[in-house]
Design brief:
Elements: E1 13-16, H1 23-32, E2 40-43, H2 54-63, E3 67-68, H3 72-80, H4 90-107, H5 110-122, E4 127-130, E5 139-143, H6 158-163, H7 171-174, E6 181-185, E7 194-195, E8 199-201, E9 217-223, E10 228-232
Length: about 240
């Protein structure tokens, strides 16, 4: 469930998609939220890699004690630094944004800071289920990947919850099922948020500036209203 998040269910929750080291864009988006820095925020993971300020983004999330689920990029970094057993992905990290992350850490404390953040990553849950319901009585289910198909076996198949993509499932069929939860996730980059009856894909590729197939926008979904807040990439 919501663990030790100490959420106030009389106030909305804001779920923010994959940040990927885009610090200025994240700060600008938070400034657009009604309660700004006092907002109840949950991140879908992938705080790091590709963008220039991975270390700074993680520091910010830790400073404000915002909630976050484990993203596949955090898992790749954990494996690269041998904080978790190898699954054969360790060489993938560097070529998928890890190099930029390393540069960020070199500017901000080096291995001491890396160790601090790896310890924090190890404590991140793979999913959060929040008993704050929408108009249909659906609880909030936050994951990094498309977790809905694994909801009934989420403990047993927790790793799949992190890595799952829409294209691996019949999402139109999933959208018609009643799990009692509404799944908000990142991982699948889309030009605009995809909001269905029981899930929302909110990674709008904020780091991908110059790629016409992506919007280079950071998105947040307000729960339970499902209103979307967005910020164009504004990295300097």
């Amino acid at each position: 469930m919501d663990g030790d998040l100490n959420l106030d269910y009389s106030k909305p929750i804001y779920i923010i998609g994959d940040v990927h080291g885009c610090l200025e864009t994240l700060c600008a988006l938070i400034e657009k939220l009604p309660q700004k820095w006092d907002s109840q925020i949950i991140f879908t993971g992938d705080l790091i890699d590709r963008g220039a300020k991975s270390c700074e983004v993680v520091d910010l999330v830790m400073k404000y004690n915002y909630a976050c689920v484990l993203g596949n990029h955090e898992e790749l970094m954990l494996e690269y630094y041998h904080a978790i057993p190898s699954k054969g992905y360790n060489k993938i990290w560097i070529n998928n944004g890890g190099y930029e992350a390393m540069e960020s850490y070199q500017r901000n404390g080096g291995f001491e800071k890396i160790h601090e953040h790896l310890e924090w990553f190890l404590k991140l849950p793979r999913f959060l289920e929040i008993p704050l319901c929408d108009e249909k009585g659906q609880r909030l289910f936050v994951t990094h990947g498309f977790g809905l198909p694994y909801y009934k076996e989420k403990e047993k198949k927790a790793e799949m919850v992190t890595w799952s993509r829409l294209k691996s499932h019949n999402w139109e069929k999933e959208a018609k099922k009643n799990y009692g939860v509404f799944n908000v996730f990142g991982h699948d980059v889309r030009k605009v948020p995809m909001i269905m009856e029981n899930f929302a894909a909110i990674d709008t590729g904020c780091v991908y500036v110059g790629d016409d197939s992506k919007s280079a926008v950071l998105s947040a979904l307000e729960w339970p209203s499902k209103q979307i807040y967005q910020q164009d990439n504004c990295e300097r």
